[in-house]
Amino acid sequence: MNHFNKNKNLWIIGGVFTLAVFLFDLFSPLGIAGGIPYVALVLLTLWSQGKNPTFLAALTGTLLTIIGYLFSPTSAVPINIVFTNRILAILGIWAAVGVILKFKQSNSEMVRHKKGLDALFFFATEGILVVNERGEIVMINPKAGELFGYDKGELIGKSIEILVPSSLREKHVHHRKSYHQNPHPRAMGGANTELFGKRKNGTDFPVEISLTHYKTEEGMFVVAFIIDISLKKKQEDLIKKSLQELKVYSDELKASNAELENFAYISSHDLQEPLRKIQSFGDRIKTLEKGKLSAQSNDYLERMLNAAYRMQILINELLAFSRLTTKAKQFEEVDLNILASEVLSDLEVSIEKSKAQINIATLPIIDAEPIQMRQLFQNLILNAIKFRKENSIPEIKIYCKRNETPVEEKSDFIELFFEDNGIGFDEKYNDRIFNIFQRLEGQKYEGTGIGLAVCRKIAQRHRGDIIAKSVIGKGSTFIVTLASKNIIKNFNSNENHEKQKS
User: Fold this and answer.
1) CA-CA 20 to 30 A from 114: which of 30, 43, 63, 343?
2) pTM for the structure as a whole
């Protein structure tokens, strides 16, 4: 509405001025002043909006200058001078148009720039303060007022130190003066420095502050950008507390694991001696009292010796499990092809007894601990032979290929497959079978339930893991993942290139 009223007034003034100049020119003898007054009409459009009023005033002035030349009374001034005067007047009118349009363009850009700066200043999500060389606040945006709890305009003219905690004000004055001596954009404080602001109600709160500056004829002004980091500090404190608690828990867990491993090793070792005595004295009784004991006593003695034998196997398995960490050795170059051949040789009796058919593809040379990899192959092959179907020849395939899972974090792994045609198991027990002492088949099959737990620990020590896929009655596939950086050479993912072993 203001723009409308302003333009309306300009049109009235312009119209009256134009009519007065035209009538004066029309009824006055031709003179040198001619159409020059119409330049003032064009200049009047400086206060109008847009280009159209300027062009309209220029066209009107040009047309009336020509009409005045044609219809004004003649005078003593030579006609060629009058004509030249009128041409110069018209040129002056359009020169004024150029100046005014350039001014309006610059002014329009300035207005847009100011609106942009105003939007940044008034609607910024961080507080902004502008301070003069005396430390007085000359501008403050709404967010800064909100942060410090002041109403609009309440801080204008006040010292910036009013927003600084009392204990820090003297130091702040020193820093403020130092900044004026060497002004440059920077963040306040340092890595180990905490900054605080003071609200109107007297409470302090942590802040982050960045400074910059600009200069005018009135002097230098410093602009401070302020962010309330109360929530961030609370989150950082919670994270620090959680990390400290996690470190304590991790240290306790490491100590606990070390104690458990030592306990398993020492206690298992200590159990060997009384167990050997049980076996030794049992064998003596069996030999010395042969034929003297009743059938029931002989049965009890056999049960005792069998239990001692199973206990010895369990203790040896526990010792082996504890040694995976406590007696771990450095990695070295291991040719899995040679290692697999040696394992098959060691298991020759079990393989011949079960008539197992074992097919092994070309395997890579890897960086690993030889003894542990031997345990891994041995345990998984024996597991496949043990859990074979009745009246069926066990068929075991061992091969290697790159992981094809499109999961980014697993893209740098290779997989060793141990595939059999055994009894299989329900996949709902997938996690359980790798826990120590877990046996899904009860007492039907011999074993301690430690073998697969050993395999998982070995795989994890080699920067990998082990999983199983199975269908009841159709067999199982154990997949050992290994980080590809373990692979040294001779990697071949063609599982059909096999060497048959039996």
Assistant:
1) 43
2) 0.45
